[in-house]
Specification:
alpha+beta, Alpha-D-Glucose-1,6-Bisphosphate, Chain A, domain 4, 8-stranded mixed β-sheet, 8 strands, START-like_dom_sf, phosphatidylcholine transporter activity
């Protein structure tokens, strides 16, 4: 098992991030959908249990063409769909197992997130994990402006070093030390447990999955910042309406066109 804690510093407030994250999730889902694959939203509804309230989502990720060829080779058709349940009680978000029906308990990605206003990634145990897990945890600071991304993922309009928000005056993030200087600021503390229990390829696949998660978080938060003028000023009600419309769009797009797999074959 790999335990990674990704700390993503963002040039926005914690309250703004709630809207920004939901907007970016909806928009990114549409980018990844088409040609029979993509994201299917089964449930997106309020929940309440004990003293906790939030939004519950249940999604299916149909992305067979994007998994490593060595995994596809041993898995039957249709067995590579991923199922995700998430309980978003913002600013704390817990996601249950991201799992696969074919692989059952042999594969899981479990992650939880805490969003902290005013933080610059300095909290050493924001999610209060056990001493045993702390010994295994790897801390990874994600710098959305300076971390390298692949040429396949790069877009000029999604480069924080070039983007300037007309509505907020934020950006571009050209200062090498921007994380310690920008205002407003907040940090997403994302703790990710990755387990893949297939003998012979466990370590290699877990490392691959960890690298993929890192890439996804980096790309997502680059987009989130560079879409500031799109989400800034939106309300949660606006977001829920957008999510409802996005669900309809996703259902239609899965049956249209082609989706081009990215470089997830490089395992």
């Amino acid at each position: 098992m790999i335990i990674n804690e990704y700390r993503v510093i963002n040039n926005c407030t914690e309250r703004e991030y709630q809207v920004a994250q939901l907007y970016a999730t909806a928009s990114a889902s549409k980018e990844q959908t088409g040609g029979g694959e993509g994201v299917e939203v089964i449930k997106n509804e309020p929940y309440e249990k004990e003293n906790e309230k939030g939004q519950y989502t249940y999604k299916i990720f149909r992305l067979a063409s994007r998994v490593p060829a060595m995994v596809r080779a041993v898995a039957p058709a249709g067995a590579l769909d991923l199922y995700e349940e998430a309980w978003n009680a913002y600013p704390y978000c817990k996601t249950g197992k991201l799992h696969n029906g074919y692989m059952k308990d042999y594969f899981s990605i479990v992650y939880e997130t805490l969003h902290v206003d005013g933080s610059r990634g300095e909290l050493e145990n924001a999610l209060k994990i056990s001493k045993e897990d702390l010994k295994k945890r790897n801390v990874i600071i994600i710098d959305i402006a300076n971390d390298k991304i692949s040429s396949n993922d790069y877009k000029v309009e999604e480069d924080p070093k070039l983007y300037h928000s007309e509505k907020t005056g934020r950006g571009p993030l050209t200062d090498p030390d921007w994380k310690n200087k920008v205002e407003p600021v907040m940090t997403c503390y994302k703790l990710v447990y990755i387990e893949f229990k297939w003998f012979g390829i466990q370590g290699k696949v877990e490392s691959f999955l960890a690298k993929t998660v890192h890439t996804l978080f980096t790309k997502f938060h680059r987009q989130l910042f560079c879409w500031t003028d799109k989400w800034y000023g939106m309300s949660i009600e606006d977001i829920r309406n957008l999510e409802a419309k996005t669900k309809q769009d996703l259902d239609a797009k899965r049956n249209e066109g082609e989706i081009v797999a990215n470089n997830l074959e490089d395992l």
